[in-house]
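Chapter summary example: a protein plus adenosine monophosphate.
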Amino acid sequence: MIIVKTISELKETLKQYNDKSIGFVPTMGALHDGHISLIRRARHENDIVVVSIFVNPTQFLAGEDLDKYPRKDEVDKKICELAKVDVLFMPNINDMYGDDEVKILAPSVKGYILEGFIRPGHFDGVLRVVCKLFNLVKPTNAYFGKKDAQQLVLIQQMVKDLFMDINIVPCELIRDSDGLALSSRNVYLSHEERQKALAISKSLKSAAKKIGMGELDVSVLQSLMSDVMCELDVEYIAFMDREFNKIEKIEIKNTIILVAARLGVTRLIDNIWI
Ligand code: AMP
C-alpha cells in the first residue's frame, strides 16, 4: 500500500494506473466495519482501490465536533493495509483548500431539508470536498454508504448534474450486533446513551415489519416509530422516496425512512430502505 499525503504525490502515483479501473472510497477516518465493507466491495470490483482519509472542515458547522472528531491515523493505516488498499490518500487542509475559492453548492431544496435543515451548509461542504476528490482520483467507481442516505442521493445528483463520468455505488448500511448503525461518532456515547440509542434501529425495524404486514400509511408508521423512541430527543422521522421527495404513502422498493436523534451531545442518524 502506498500512503500519499500531497496532491502532487497522488497525481504521480495514479499515473501508473492509467488504463486500470479505480474504485474510490472517501472517508473521514476512524474506520469501522461500515467503511471496511465499502473498501471490500471496491476491492472486489476494481483493479485499483484508493481510499482517502480527510476530516473535511467545510462540512462541519461552527460549534460542531470538528476538533474532537475521532482521529486514528495509525490504526486506519493498518486497516487499509489489511484490506489490500493500493493507495491511501491522507491530505492536509492546506493542500485541499485555498482562500477565496470557486465553490459548488448543494441544491437549494434537497440540500437544505432534514440533515441540511439542521446542519445548513453541511452538504455544500460535502459536495465541495467530494468534487475535489473526484477530480483528483478520477475514479471509475466511487463507493458510498446508504447510512448517509441524503449524502448519497446528493452525490448521485452532483455526478448527474455536472456530467461527471463516475459510477456511484450505494453500499448497504452495516450495524453492530445489537442493531446500532456503525458510526465513527458512536465512541462519544456513554454506556447508558448507547443502550437508549438502540430504540432508533428498533423503531425502523418495527416500521419495516408493519409495512410487511400491509401498513402503507406514513402517519400511522410515524406514530408507531415515535412511540418506540419516546425516551429519545428525536429531531426528525422522515419518509422520502429514493430521489428524496417527501411521500405520504409507502412505495415498496422506492422508500427511505430516516431518523435523526440526539443522545446527550451526540447526534445519530439511521435509516432503512424499503
Ligand atoms: P465517514 O467517514 O463518516 O465520512 O463515512 C465514509 C463513508 O462510509 C460514507 O460513504 C458513509 O456513508 C460510509 N459509512 C459510514 N458508516 C457506515 C455504515 N454503518 N454502513 C455503511 N457505510 C457506512
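Key point: The radius of gyration is 19 Å.
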